[in-house]
Q: What sequence folds into this?
């Protein structure tokens, strides 16, 4: 677990250093003014080629978030296809519901963090009239739902990793990057 959690921490620290504040509202406000100010593209106040740093940081954060939430292809602790539904055999009814709510809230948290750190939070992609009429909470929800959809699509498109492949990815690729 440490191999990808360290990468998430470094990405968080890098974004917070770019903004100069640990306040998430300040992180979002630093990305105001249109999608060209979002951290994933230009890092706002940094020079033009900053996207060469911020796009790989977003990719590292996204893949590490998949591993952190035990989503496929990183569902290594209990893979449903190898065991009889894995740990889910132990639970039924309300305990199962609470367990799965916790799992999905963790995914929503990671999607919200990606939205806040890299994609402008609650700001519209364009700072012109038709886009500014939509309330900010809807922009935030649209972005979070988009990343939730991306989490679901990875399950359909990417084959499962082995433990050694995940460790190699975390320690030999993400950490040096």
A:
């Amino acid at each position: 677990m440490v191999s990808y959690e360290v990468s998430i921490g470094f990405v968080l620290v890098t974004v917070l250093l770019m903004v100069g504040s640990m306040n998430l509202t300040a992180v979002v406000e630093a990305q105001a003014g249109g999608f060209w100010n979002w951290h994933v593209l230009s890092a706002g106040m940094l020079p033009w080629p900053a996207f060469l740093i911020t796009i790989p940081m977003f990719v590292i954060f996204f893949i590490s978030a998949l591993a952190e939430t035990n989503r496929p292809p990183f569902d290594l602790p209990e893979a449903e296809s190898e065991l009889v539904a894995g740990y889910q055999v132990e639970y039924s009814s309300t305990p199962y519901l609470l367990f799965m709510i916790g799992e999905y809230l963790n995914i929503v948290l990671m999607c919200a963090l990606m939205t806040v750190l890299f994609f402008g939070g609650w700001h519209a992609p364009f700072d012109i009239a038709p886009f500014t009429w939509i309330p900010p909470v809807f922009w935030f929800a649209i972005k979070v739902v988009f990343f939730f959809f991306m989490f679901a699509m990875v399950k359909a498109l990417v084959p499962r990793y082995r433990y050694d492949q995940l460790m190699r990815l975390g320690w030999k690729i993400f950490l040096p990057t």
